[in-house]
Amino acid sequence: MEKETALIEAILYLEADPVEVAVLVRNSGLSRDVVNAALEALDARYAGADSGVELSRIGGGVMIAPKREYWENLKERYGRRNEKTLSRAALETLSIIAYSQPITRGEIEAIRGVQADNMIRLLVERELIKEVGKKDVPGKPVQFGTTREFLKFFRLESIDDLPRLGESEADRFELDGEN
């Protein structure tokens, strides 16, 4: 099992983005059970205090990443290429989309109280959001949702891992007339 674990570790090391188990199976030629056992072995190995990395599960995939406890010390130097800062307005718009998706531009503007065209364009360019469909109302406005890049940016396995909102915060993300 050591060779199989080493092979999976090497594949993860070479990949820049999270890799789904099915891709690990295909690229390694190993069975799903062996790949899952190798991932468990890597989790155990990286859990030790002598390891600076961990397996990070992001958007249905797995990648090797610095342990969260070290990221604060590392992000100034190593985070810039992945973590270009977002303005307060962009973060606010992104939060509204993340917590209310799928959501239209008009709904975003109703919540924010200001026009959202530039923020939406920026977030689409950064691949943090994308068009996910059209709302079934007159005019069929485009709906937006978050992307896998969003999950990677915030190191989330799924959108369900977003912090829970308090009641007053949740109220802010609702449109008037919705319950």
Mean pLDDT: 87
Silhouette: elongated
- Please report the number of helical segments: 9
User: What's the order of the H and E elements?
Assistant: HHHEEHHEHHEEHH
* CATH homologous superfamily caption of the largest domain: Winged helix-like DNA-binding domain superfamily/Winged helix DNA-binding domain
Strand content: 5-15%
Distance between the ends: 53 Å
Number of domains: 2
Short recap of the structure:
With 179 residues, the protein is of the alpha+beta class. Helices cover 50% and strands 14% of the residues. It has two domains: 2-78, Arc Repressor Mutant, subunit A, CATH 1.10.10; 88-172, Winged helix-like DNA-binding domain superfamily/Winged helix DNA-binding domain (Arc Repressor Mutant, subunit A).
Notes on the protein architecture:
The chain is built from nine helices and five strands. It has helices at 2-14, 21-28, 32-46, 68-78, 88-100, 105-112, 117-125, 148-154, 167-172, and strands at 53-58, 61-66, 103-104, 129-134, 142-146. The strands form two sheets. A three-stranded antiparallel β-sheet has the order 3-5-4. Strands 1-2 form a two-stranded antiparallel ribbon. The radius of gyration is 19 Å and the shape is elongated. The model has no long low-confidence stretch (mean pLDDT 87). A hairpin with a 2-residue loop joins strand 1 and strand 2. The chain folds into two domains: 2-78, Winged helix-like DNA-binding domain superfamily/Winged helix DNA-binding domain (Arc Repressor Mutant, subunit A); 88-172, Winged helix-like DNA-binding domain superfamily/Winged helix DNA-binding domain (Arc Repressor Mutant, subunit A), CATH 1.10.10. The longest helix is centred in the N-terminal third of the chain and has 15 residues, at 32-46. The protein is of the alpha+beta class and 179 residues long.
